[in-house]
Amino acid sequence: MTTYETVIGLECHVELSTRTKMFCSCANEFGAEPNTLVCPICLGHPGTLPVPNERAVEHTITIGLALGSEIAPTSLFHRKNYFYPDMPKNYQISQYDLPLCVGGELDVEVDGETRRVGITRVHLEEDTGKTTHAGATGRIAGADYALEDYNRAGVPLVEVVSEPDLRSPGEARAYLQALRGLLRSLGVSDVKMEEGSLRCDANISVRPEGHEELGTKVEIKNMNSIRSVERALAFEAERQRAALGSGEALVQETRHWDEDRGATSSMRSKEEAFDYRYFPDPDLSPLEPEAERVERLRSELPELPAARRSRLETERGLPAAQVAQIVDHDWDGFLEEAVSEGADANAAANWMTGDLAALLNEAGIQLAESKVTPRHLADLVGLVAEGTISTAGAKQVLAEMFASGAEAAVVVEERGLAQISDESALGAIVDEVIAENPEPVEQFRGGKEGVIGFLVGQVMQRSKGAANPQEAQRLLRQRLAP
Amino acid sequence: MTELCDLAGHELAARLRSGEASALDAVESSLARIEATEPEVSAFLARSADDAREQARTIDERIAAGDDLPAVAGIPLALKDVLTTRGVTTTCGSRILETYVPPYDCTVWARLKEAGSMLVGKTNCDEFAMGSSNENSAFGPVHNPWDLTRVPGGSSGGSAAAVAAGQATWALGTDTGGSVRQPAALTGVVGMKPTYGRPSRYGLIAFASSLDTVSTFTRDVRDAATLLSAIVGHDPLDATSIQRPPEDYTDGLEGGVEGLRIGVLRDWLGEGVEPGVRARTEEAIGRLENLGAKIGEATLPHADYALSAYYLIAPAECSSNLARYDGVRYGHRAEGANVIEMMMRTRGEGFGDEVKRRIMLGTYALSAGYYEAYYGQAQKVRTLVLRDFEAAWEEFDLLLSPTSPTVAFPIGAKADDPLAMYLSDVYTIPANLAGTPAISVPCGLDDQGLPVGLQLMGRALDEATVLRAAHAFEQDLGFDARPPLLQELTS
Q: Which fold has domain A423-480?
């Protein structure tokens, strides 16, 4: 049986977090009441003209520099013409054959190995508004009416196009995580897929292993999370393999990912593809960033994730997978601060990628937005290390710090979470447990080593979880020693 | 006795300052002339009498208080209905914007308003400025005050007729391929197109963005210099506006033409030019020579292709510019079973034939597989025309030609022949492709008593030389004929 290789390229759209929109002075914010962040320009009123947002141009150059792109000395805005009610002018100001950034690469961690993924281009354009089709289907065909929100219309949008260098849905996920981490570290975007500030379309084809020539390409749209990108690609790769395996021909087309059904379906074929009639926008002059400006932006680049990863691995000795998670989420600054507040790096990293990550995920917020500070974390790690609280107790302390921002010591005090390590207090409990469990005690003395766990458990129960389990075990062994 | 509305702007300004007349008198004079002539001329689509009167009272108070007012203060103005006016309907002569009230002022009107200009109304035009006769207006044609059976030219025909008929002292139009100079020639007034990018396009409802230029209609060249000075200068709202402060074009206006090198475009005086136009142009050349200009022969070798290039570039841009009229956000909205059908019907009902023709031409020219052959090729021609001009400036300071090959033609004469209509702009289009300043100044009447216009073109940003030569010519000619309509009215 033929084995097939999967070939994937991603087109990511990134909303820049500038103060104002791309071509007008409306605020660029997510979540406002519909049609409150609009003006004659972003509504496409007759006679209005676009004026480029210089900050958005700089952000795009910064992204290009971070990806190792060449910054084009001259690039053009083109008009992409097609009719859709969420596009106020019925054309989108975008870039075509002369993008702002050309080429580049992004290093991606896959299963502990680094893969270098080529970047084709990075260009700048404006976002569209948002259409809600009211009716049974939720799509334009069959809708009873449509509602338009133009708050997003004209928000600066950067498109990052990768080369078809990805070979599995897992690699695509890793690429997205790395890109998200990079963009976050540059401070140019919120990169929240759930809010649409990071969006992704995928091109995928399969070819018999060893073949040079690419297979028939399918574009997938409507994936709203990194997980759905991975799922959609896995579904589509399997669909294409199955089709080829059973001798069916694939068609070049655009397919729609249905998250609920977990399947893709055909949107339009190559023949039905739009003719966008691109031409240079006569309302805008060419973008010609001066060399000094590009150099200034280059000098202002922060340390990039790849460098940060290798530093954490070598200097802090953390495992690669954990480092990738920390750096992709832009948590390494927090970690370094916690360490400088006295935390052990390993322990702090474990808390961050474990319980703290879970709390953030559950609350749907970023670390920077949470009430937990690096010093909080350092205190917590310290209390565990010196044996004042157990790991179980520490989980409770973290949850409370996360919820209220309280000091670790205060939570320990208020909830009585301090461990009983004191030999006299703990010794009394240990003696009681030995007295009340003659049978297990006999078994242990008879060489049944595993029973010690039961006895420690009894001590913990009796102390209502406050006992230091290591200390309890030590005392038990001491008293039961022959 | 000459009425206030028949004076040039600078004459009226002098009377306002001497106390012989008030701004309110000036407005009332214009409004009365509109009342008297509008039934025949049909130059206006909307009037703003109350706003004009209110502005006049403010100006009069400031004059009484001894304020030093800008030159345009207290002068009645008309604006072509493609220039947005906050709170005043702006239709572009189209059904699709019949009820559109802009939420903002275009930059040129904002500047004039600030300087005390008084808007009497919005003028009729070819739909979205596409046409050379004003017959493509959805709201009916404009009639030429010199002969009411004839067109005033276009697309800014309403502004031209309004100035020719004394309905407004001066007016703004837009010149994309000759839409100010050609109607100025056909109605016996001065039409001045400045360098592309010199006045802001913000609020100029786009036909062809790389060509559209706000331009002036005035009674004489001094007024053109004055009005133009008030509207030019960089605008942060227009990314294509030139980074250069305003200048006062009345400085040096009296400098004469002594020693100026004027190149006559001989090729443009041959076939296709009416005898009356040729005769007046030849006389004008003689007159300029007598005044001391050095006359030579010039050529723009690629100008023969300019018309074709224009009719690819302008429709291509318009096909995209006019896409926004879909009934979703403003303007006319048709009923439809779904949003796509609604958009299609809205555009089907809202646009007239010429607009549809150009949208289709432009859509085709930009289509995949045709782009290079049409739009790409047209852009190359545009570059060649620009180089022709640059070569001509090596030898000459100005280029001279008729503005239009014909005088005003009868309404309906070319309405069914788009190609014949397009040829009306054959001498004005090259200056648009090159973005260079050009003026049309009256140079007499033909033997039917219809006005002929002389075109002078200059280097980019050298409006001053264009105006200086036109002024010298105008003073020497002393053109003082008046449309028969006005002779009847005031006799």
A: Arc Repressor Mutant, subunit A (1.10.10)
